[in-house]
Amino acid sequence: MNNPQDWENIDWSRLADYYPTPDYLSSSRKRLTPQLLYKGAILHGWNKKQVVVVQKSFFETLPNLPRVEQEQAEIAWHLYDLQRQNDQFDLILSNIFYTEYWSAINRISTPEPGRLEDFLAILQQKLDDKLENPPDTQTILDIPLQ
Question: What global pTM score does this model have?
Answer without folding.
Answer: 0.69
